[in-house]
UniProtKB/TrEMBL annotation:
Uppermost EC category: transferase
NCBIfam families the UniProt entry points to: PRK09219.1, XPRTase
Organism per entry: Lysinibacillus alkalisoli
Spans through the membrane: none
Family: Belongs to the purine/pyrimidine phosphoribosyltransferase family. Xpt subfamily.
EC number: 2.4.2.22
Protein name per UniProt: Xanthine phosphoribosyltransferase
Binding-site residues for 5-phospho-alpha-D-ribose 1-diphosphate, renumbered to this chain: A128, N129, G130, E131, A132
Domain Phosphoribosyltransferase: 45-157
One Gene Ontology molecular-function label: xanthine phosphoribosyltransferase activity
Localisation per UniProt entry: Cytoplasm
Pathway: Purine metabolism; XMP biosynthesis via salvage pathway; XMP from xanthine: step 1/1
Quaternary structure, from the entry: Homodimer.
Length: 194
């Protein structure tokens, strides 16, 4: 998605060879017009699917997920993160380990909001090692719901999340795939579909 790549080039800050900071439009301040276009782009890429629910994880997945939900007229559910879950039998839960932050958190979604007849799309801001998406897939599986695919705003192609998910047969659509973050410069994957 050219608009997104231009924004990353213009405003993204390469913090290290593995971390891209995009606080000006995605992770702290949000650019609503860009988010609207992102929602439209996800809807276009998954236009052949009937989607009944958009599933994401707090906090940075909520903005792009909501814009997709608005575009396709589907509710948006976000998994909540907890340090430790208080026991409840009304929750679907999964354990998500972040290699980047070296913490494991429990994520949870109420059983009231996902059902066996749902066709779910999973949305997130970043795809690195894929642990957050794996947790959301596990939650969808507990609900007995169908997952039509995964939509990612920025995939880090040099980490294994996208490769592993695609190898499992999961459809992953990333709007920008960053191949390299060397010497302060962002390089995108050539093969990314437009
Ligand atoms: P994974 O789910 O793909 O395995 O990713 P990882 O554990 O590495 O990610 C942990 C957190 O760091 C996630 O945010 C993820 O979005 C974010 N993240 C990973 N790589 C980058 C990066 O290069 N740049 C930025 N800006 N963020 C990155 P989170 O802790 O869930 O926070 P939130 O922003 O959603 O609240
Ligand atoms: Na996220
Ligand atoms: Na994030």
């Amino acid at each position: 998605m050219q608009l997104l790549k231009d924004k990353i080039i213009k405003e993204g800050k390469v913090l290290s060879p593995t971390v891209l900071k995009v606080d000006t439009f995605l992770n702290h301040q949000i650019d609503p017009l860009l988010m609207k276009e992102i929602g439209h782009e996800f809807a276009t890429r998954f236009t052949n699917e009937v989607i009944t629910k958009v599933l994401t994880i707090e906090s940075s997945g909520i903005a792009p997920a909501t814009m997709l939900g608005l575009e396709i007229g589907a509710p948006v559910v976000f998994a909540r993160k907890r340090k430790s879950l208080t026991l409840s039998d009304n929750l679907f839960t999964a354990s998500v380990h972040s290699f980047t932050k070296n913490v494991t958190s429990d994520i949870a979604v109420s059983r009231d909001f996902l059902h066996a007849d749902d066709n779910i799309i999973i949305i997130d801001d970043f795809l690195a090692n894929g642990e957050a998406v794996k947790g959301l897939l596990h939650i969808a599986e507990q609900a007995g719901a169908n997952v039509v695919g995964v939509g990612i705003v920025i995939e880090k192609g040099f980490q294994d999340g996208g490769k592993n998910l695609r190898a499992q047969g999961v459809r992953v659509e990333s709007l920008a795939i960053v191949n390299e973050l060397e010497e302060g410069k962002v390089t995108f994957a050539e093969e990314e579909a437009e």
